[in-house]
Structure formats: C-alpha cells, structure tokens
Amino acid sequence: MSQLVCATSNCKRIARALCHCCNRNICLLHLKEHNDAFLSQLNPCADEINSVDYRLVSIDAKVLLQEYHKQLEEWRKASYKTIDQIFEEKSKELERILIEKIDKQKIEINLVRDTITKLNEEAEASQLDVDLIKTKISRLNENLTNIEQISFKINTYPLIIDNNAVQIEEKKDLQTILSSPFKTIDFTDLGSPIIASNNKYLLLHQNSYLCLIDNDFKIFKKIPWHLKQIHDICWSSALDRFILTTETCGICYVHENSISLQDVECLTRQRFFSCSCSNTSLFLTTDTVGSSIIEFCLLPTIELSRQWQSPDTCTKDEYINRIRYSHGTLGLVIQNLTENTLKIELRCSKTLDRFWSIPLSSGLKLKQYEYCVFNDCQWLFIDRISSSILHITNDEKIKQTCNYNSKLCNVALFGTDILAVLTDKCIHFHKL
C-alpha cells in the first residue's frame, strides 16, 4: 500500500493527517504549524470577547432607564393628582350639603327670633302666637337633631386602570424611521426651504403662498406671499401664532386661524436671521457677522429681555446660522466665514454658558444645512449637499448619520410622533 506524501510545497514527509481547513493530506509537523497559526488568531479573539463582556458588565441599567423611570413617575404623579382632585371635589360636596342644611336652619332661627322681638316691642301677644312660636321651636329642634345625626351613603367603586394606560415601545433608530414614509404630499416650486409646526399645523412656503397642512395631511389654508425669501420660522405658544424672519420686512406673524401678517413694530429696527421660542420668550439672531442673540419676553407684552453680543455669542468672523430652543437650552449652528468651518453648540438659555461644542467637517456653505430639535432633547443636523441627517444626543454624542434617498431640504417634528421631511419635490411624513 503506497503512502501519501505531505501536500505542503517542498515537503517530502509522509502525510499522517488530513487538514480540515484546506482539505489536504499533510504531515504532523505542518499540521502543528497549521494549528499554531489558528491558535495565534484566537488570542485577539479572546481579548475582543473579554472587551465585549466588559462592556456588557459595565452597562448600568439604572442610568439607562433613569429618564424613562422619570416619565413613569410623572404619569404616576398625574394619576394621583387626578385621584386627589376627585377626593377634594367629593369632600367639598359633602361639606356643601351639610352647610346648606345648617344655613337653612339659621334662617329659620332668625325668623323666629325676629317674631319674638317684634311681639315684645308691640307689647301684645296672643296664645295663638305663643303656640305657633313653640311649634316652630319644636320643629327646629327636630331638624337640628336630624343634622346632628346626619348620615350619608357613599358609593365607591374599585379604581380600574387599564394596563394599556402605560405602553412601552422600544424606539426605532433614525435610519429605520426614515426608511419608508407613511404619507407623502407632492408639490412644485418650493419657495423657502423652511418648515415649522405646532401640534395642529405644518407651515411651509410654496411658490407665492404660505401653506398650512393639517393633521389630515391636507392643505388647510393658503395665503398669498409677495415678500422675499423667508429666513426662518418658529411657533410661539404664548402668542398662539407662527413667527417668521424674512429678508425684507424683519418679523411677521402668521395666525393659524386668520392667516394674517403683521409687522412687529418693536422688532423692526434690526435685521434678524434665525428665531426660536420657549413658552415665554422669543430668541432671535441678528443677520450680521459676529451675530448677536436677542431675547424678547412675550407676555404680557413684547419687551426686550436681554441681549448677548460677540464675543459671548461667537467671534467677530463667525455667523450664527440657526438657533433652536429646547428645555432650557439653546442649540446653535455657528459658521466661521474666514476658515469656512462649522460647529454645533449647546448653550444655557439663561446665561448662554456653553455646555458643549461639536466641530463639523468644513466645506458646507451658508444656507446649505438646517438644524432642528428632535425627541427627548436631541438634535438633528441636516446637510443639504449630501442629503444626510446627523442625529446628536443632548450629551454631545453623535448617535447616527443617516442618508436620505431624496434631495433633502429640511425636517421638522409635526406634533410629538411624526417627522416631516421636506425635499425639493414633496413632503414625506415618517412615524416615530
């Protein structure tokens, strides 16, 4: 019986084993070399699996779930508040019933007392008068006894809370959200690539009109727009209207019912570019290099509250292109016009102290990007050149970069659970 020779090149040894990796007959020496080579690759794998295990062990469930426990706690407090309100209402109802009975008897007592006083003043009274008074007093005593022994029947029923009153769903990542819209509205002749919304309407500039899109994803109203380009739009809950910064007329209002435009007299002395609102204030950036940030108090009247200037806002050769308010913070997009660099910063809305700053790749030109507030105090940065969206968390982390399959112009939250994506030809609506 002939013996097999090792299949390894230039090896004349007799093959003693079959290498399952390359399916060749090799000698024991080369089998050991094969094994040693594979074993040498296992060491990095062992280190990597240890690293993965360390990451898993390092996960702090309390930290990850802290914000969501806070939401559940808010729901719990709101539920208890509802119970407390019912308790207070029913307690007042009990008190009201008893007080009405007592007040009625006070009136009767005063009437009998007035009768006795009148008879004494007139110095004449008959037996009939005395008997009538005694009868009334007797009835009053009976009524008081009934009040002192009053009893109520309180019917209470078990408080039934549907388990579906609180539903927990794992949020989709942004790329999954953007993969397929559930609704699309086609249009032509986009005016300004700016959109804004409240819980009822989405406002956009189409051709020579301002359009309001309602929750049924239909154009609710149109108003002719003869002014030039719109720089920015924000919704003010305090004024119950949209605020627009424009190229020519400064600040304009758009009311969701009348859709009327007004100049704001106290705000027309400067040219503004970007705008954003809290519940009580309007924040504006000036349309100048070395941009200033101006805060106006909106209630009870529009009044200047404070103003920050360069270098507190930005350097003399920088321009604030976007300002967005969220939960006591201001998100800023700042472009250095000399170096053509870009950065995103998070500031305190009261002091303008910087929480963090993220530099972005250079090369983006003015008005070729957008910025909006996302859910849970997160942010979306929109690059129109590459049609991509950068998802940034509130703690300075770039969570995800997503490419969009159409020419991207802008995005905005529509209500709390819909992301409206504006392209050059339509608006896509994505469910969060």
Notes on the structure:
The protein has 432 residues and is α+β, with helices and mostly antiparallel strands. The chain folds into three domains: 1-51, no CATH class; 82-146; 174-431, TolB, C-terminal domain (Neuraminidase, 6 Propeller). The chain is 28% helix and 34% strand. The chain is built from four helices and 25 strands. The chain has helices spanning 28-58, 61-122, 127-148, 174-179, and strands at 17-19, 24-26, 183-186, 190-197, 202-206, 209-213, 219-224, 230-236, 241-246, 251-254, 272-277, 281-286, 293-297, 303-308, 318-326, 329-336, 341-348, 354-360, 369-373, 379-383, 388-392, 398-403, 408-414, 418-423, 426-431. The strands form seven sheets. A four-stranded antiparallel β-sheet has the order 3-25-24-23, with no helix packed on it. A hairpin with a 4-residue loop joins strand 9 (241-246) and strand 10 (251-254). Helix 2 (61-122) packs antiparallel against helix 3 (127-148). The longest helix is centred in the first third of the chain and has 62 residues, at 61-122. The chain is flat. It starts with 16 loop residues before the first strand and ends with a strand. The mean pLDDT is 85.
